[in-house]
């Protein structure tokens, strides 16, 4: 797992946590849900194969009734998955206010997910064939499915870990976002996602129900799927974390990384926005928390300025431009160049 931010030990600990104990008292993780889902796909390939096998065997017309049965069940699920992919996704799908997708889905990622599901259906169906004695016909097919699954399982299990440890309040893909945004701001979203360098800051202003939180989580989630270490936090939680001197051995063992060593940080609830007119937390107040009530906390300033950050801010009912300038000036003060700052204004 070279080059990954999650190592083999982390994966083994996650498997141990998922498989040992009862989910009725510990909750269900994304990795556990993924494994359960794929086991369900395997079972839906394996169990239904008994039905056509029963009729084919009794008919006496087939030399390998188990293999034919597996083929029938597999092709039924193959057609089902292809309909799921090409139907709701590739056909013109209209969302809220009769608009198409604001942000197009990641088709390659969805296609890979579909291939993974199909492979687990196939593995279940042809495992049935193998166990019923049609070994010669099924070994090659099983090898093909196992090869695909071995690769896809590594990717998807790691992906679910990256999503889980980002601490998002809800799971959300960018293609699910259906609020109003202009083309210029859409380009800023794409630039942030495609940016490979650090110290990119995105200020997202918006009133209540403008979609600023879901947009920010959608952006960060796309980066989690690319195996970037992301962290979602509210400003209130972050205030106390500014006082923690190091990211080593965090008190909360539920996180593999903290705000200090994450690649992407999402800071929510800095200000509520309209209809609340006042900024409950000003830029100068936020800076005092960064500095932990000192004249200047160089470690915090450098850490925050050197990473990619999405700032979820409210806006005033008037004079919005001045509010933006104040926050941009604060970022300049901690060492973020102006050309590394983008501002998005959402309208409800």
Task: Describe this protein's structure.
This protein has 348 residues and is of the alpha/beta class. The protein has two domains: 8-164, no CATH class; 174-346, 3-Layer(aba) Sandwich (Rossmann fold), CATH 3.40.50.300. The chain is 54% helix and 8% strand. It contains 13 helices and five strands. The chain has a five-stranded parallel β-sheet, with helices on both faces. Helix 3 runs antiparallel to helix 7 (135-164). The longest helix has 30 residues, at 135-164. The protein is elongated.
Question: What is the secondary structure topology, with strand pairs?
Answer:
Blueprint: H1 8-19, H2 23-26, H3 30-46, H4 50-59, H5 65-90, H6 107-131, H7 135-164, H8 183-194, E1 201-206, H9 212-225, E2 230-234, H10 235-241, E3 264-268, H11 283-290, H12 298-305, E4 308-313, H13 320-333, E5 341-346
Parallel strand pairs: 1-4, 1-5, 2-3, 3-4
Helix pairs in contact: 3-6, 3-7, 4-5, 5-6, 6-7
């Amino acid at each position: 797992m070279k080059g990954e931010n999650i190592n083999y030990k982390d994966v083994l600990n996650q498997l141990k946590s998922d498989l040992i104990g009862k989910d009725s008292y510990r909750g269900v993780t994304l990795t556990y849900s993924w494994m359960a889902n794929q086991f369900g796909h395997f079972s839906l390939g394996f169990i239904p194969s008994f039905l056509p096998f029963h009729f084919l065997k009794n008919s006496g017309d087939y030399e390998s009734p188990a293999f034919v049965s597996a083929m029938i069940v597999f092709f039924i699920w193959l057609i089902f998955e292809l309909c799921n992919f090409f139907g709701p996704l590739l056909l013109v799908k209209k969302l809220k206010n009769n608009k198409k997708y604001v942000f197009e889905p990641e088709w390659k990622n969805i296609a890979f997910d579909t291939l993974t599901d199909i492979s687990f259906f196939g593995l279940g169906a042809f495992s049935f064939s193998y166990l019923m004695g049609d070994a010669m016909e099924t070994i090659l097919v099983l090898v093909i499915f196992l090869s695909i699954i071995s690769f896809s399982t590594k990717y998807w299990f790691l992906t679910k870990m990256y999503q889980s440890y980002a601490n998002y309040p809800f799971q959300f893909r960018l293609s699910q976002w259906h609020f109003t945004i202009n083309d210029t701001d859409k380009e800023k979203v794409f630039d942030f996602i495609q940016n490979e360098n650090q110290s990119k800051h995105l200020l997202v202003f918006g009133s209540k129900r403008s979609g600023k939180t879901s947009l920010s989580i959608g952006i960060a989630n796309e980066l989690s799927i690319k195996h970037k270490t992301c962290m979602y936090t509210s400003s209130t939680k972050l205030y106390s974390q500014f006082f923690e001197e190091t990211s080593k051995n965090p008190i909360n063992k539920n996180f593999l990384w903290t705000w200090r060593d994450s690649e992407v940080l999402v800071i929510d609830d800095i200000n509520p926005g309209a209809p609340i007119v006042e900024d409950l937390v000003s830029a100068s107040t936020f800076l005092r928390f960064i500095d932990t009530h000192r004249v200047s906390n160089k470690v915090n300033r450098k850490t925050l300025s050197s990473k990619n950050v999405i700032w979820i801010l409210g806006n005033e009912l008037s004079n919005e431009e001045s509010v933006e300038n104040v926050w941009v000036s604060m970022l300049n003060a901690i060492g973020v160049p102006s050309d590394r700052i983008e501002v998005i204004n959402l309208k409800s």
